[in-house]
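Researcher: Can you fold this with succinic acid in place?
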Amino acid sequence: MALKTIDLTPCIGSMVETDVATLVSGAASAEICELVQSRGVLVIRGLDMDDETQLAFTRTLGPVLDEKSGEVYKVTYDPRESPQLYFYTPGNFFWHIDRTDSQMPPFISMLNARRLSDTGGDTSFANTYAAYEELPEADKALIEDLQVVHKVEASYRFVPNLSDEQIAAFRAHEPKVHPLVWRHRNGRKSLITSTSGIEVIGMAAAEAEALLQRMIDWATQPQFVYRHRWQLGDIVMWDNTGTMHKAEPYGEESGRLLHRTTVLGDEPFDPERTLAA
Ligand code: SIN
């Protein structure tokens, strides 16, 4: 089946024109998995899926995270909606790859726009394959073998007014070490850049932080970025192994609510380290 697509920028993001029945049937799932890897982000408008349908579609793409609960994860910044989610949501406002606190990150994350903010609340995505490929050769040589320590607490270091409870919870996560350059089994390389990355093994702290920030700044230049302005009913999915993302600011009282489902990954950040673990 050849899906109709329109590129949203030259480097990242495509709009796919299809319907709920096609998606849930699984007839297009292989093509969607290929497209999301080659374009980083796919947008499908006007679907208005309920949770059950979203889960059914997600299932056609691979094993689903937390499938047993039968519930989708709610992305909200409204403490009345869920104090527990509110606790973690501020980390979403900074560039990140999902689950750098694990060795095996998710493959596809999917968001379904259920309620929108009147102002703000776009979601931005950066193509970490293209960002690596376009690096000057001197930078490629500099970072080729670097190993980076990722900490959950580092993801929140720019968030003001964290509570003691939040700080303690974030610190309780074990740090993880990942290469700065991801050598994918498809033969390509991408950057593993995320606000969680805070130390480089064998490098002075200030130098490491400056280098990691420089890599994020590089990877989030306009030519590598797609910024999604939400419409109700949109489904947006991205390849978490080849992109970073972040939420653009919106208010706690805005009511913005996105329902997220996640396809588990099977490509570790570092195959050698995962085998050794
Ligand atoms: C996320 O970071 O997973 C959510 C992004 C958003 O709320 O736009």
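Model: Folded with succinic acid in place. Residues 75, 92, 123, 245, 247, 258 surround succinic acid (CB under 6 Å).
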